[in-house]
Amino acid sequence: MTPLLAPLVCRLFTAVLAAGLALGAVGAAAQSGAAQALRVASAFDPQTMDPHALSLLYHSRVVHQVYESLVGRDAHFKLEPALALRWQPVSPTVWRFNLRPGVQFHDGTPFGADDAVFSLERALAPSSQRAFQLRGVSAVRKLDALTIEIQLEAPDAVLPEKLPLVAMMSKAWSEKHGVQRPQDFHAKQETHAVRNANGTGPVRLERYEPDVRTTLRRHSGWWGWADARHGSRLEQVSFVTIKSDATRLAALASGEVDLVLDPPYQDIARLKADPRLVLLQTADIGQQYLAFDQARDQLQDSDVLGRNPFKDLRVRKAVYHALNMQLIVDKVLRGQARPTGAFLSPLVDGSPPELDQRLPYDPARARQLLGEAGYPNGFSVTLDCVNVAWRENVCQAMAAMLTQVGIRTTLRSSPTGQFFPKLTQGTGSFVEFGWTATPDAWNSLNGLFRSHDGNGLGTFNAGRYRNPKLDSLIDAIRTEPDLTRRRAMVTTVLRLAAEDLPLVPLYRRTLTWAMARKVQLVQWPNDTLELRWVQLK
Predict the structure, then answer these.
(1) In terms of pTM, does the model score above 0.85?
(2) Range 6-258+518-536: architecture per CATH
(3) What tens digit of pLDDT does each residue of 181-204 get?
């Protein structure tokens, strides 16, 4: 179980230390006494409790407190055992996982190999948004009550890196409630797993009220409480959905909530000066992009007939040159981000820092490129954006800049339930979206740049971009066992993407959490809170 991503882990560890988030401070704060309750506010709702139905940050940061995976991450974002105690390759195409004994689901039934096999097969189903992580898995089999093997189509030296967030479910519970397959979220399917859950995690689901709150209770039988690092005494946790920035901060100021995961950027300086509050900040391992429709022959909702301007690289470059991202970061995001020209953070293995340089802001060059592409008078387009204040504000600024060079941009803001399916269904013409990467690059490259096939390849390729050369390289990265060659291949893919611009990279945020002084926790670079480490002083 020798880690193959040790250099990356060191960089992540350094980033966490820089943010002042040592786990020891949390463990030392364990107290005896009254039951503790934590109230967490965010603008986003998890949308479903089915752990395989969605692959979104706002879903996983809640649902994966209830459900666990075979492999987890520690306080420094390094892989660690979760429901699997050990794993090792037993041949180039077979990995063996020894499961943790004595684990119980929240309904009291034991977790074992049958559940693990069932869960991995469920996560591979067509309606699962986690299937893209498991690309290359051809079979899962039970060896005994606490041992499984994963059969691969080809060697995969970093398979364990793909297993966090692939939740383990109870086979018996799923069969009892008719949820053997993941909810089809795009079809708005209603199943028992949408509002009910039965995991093995440190908290159990008490109640899910969509767009209002998710209430969790301590699972006293969790196997992890025996570990001294997991000293949380929380008895109840509420994830409260408050879409209004002002209302979220008012709730924090009044003590109605204890933690805000997405404070508005214009209020960061004021919050830092408030003696009642603590702010934690760290660099985001994810970032924001613009995606183009590159599949349709005619651009939807446009005054250009019979053509799709975004199929022309010169038009995509014109979009890039038209955006003054430093101005947007300074004025709209109040300095709480940094513009990026890279497609993946340097915290992702194989993403070199030198790719972080953006193309220059150059409106004249943008207009020239549009003319060369056959659009001297520009064209109209609709930009889709989620209706969260800071995202909308950035989209409004970009729409104005694009309009100035002739790309007459109309902003269309939608609630999360309407917006996110545009990404996975590829129905938008021009979309602003964010992606939370993992330390291993393949998940991101496969999700964002691989040609979409509806079966785990290119799941989040929102523009349905196709590039056979990139496809071959991305597929080869998945099976390359030598880490040095693998990194070089990742860098090659990123350089080719920079030349062809399937997306326009925008910026990486500074992740900021605002909380009452009584709260102590660990902040990961993927904007996810782990309840097992939270303490209330």
Answers:
(1) no
(2) 3-Layer(aba) Sandwich (3.40)
(3) 999 998 889 999 999 999 999 999
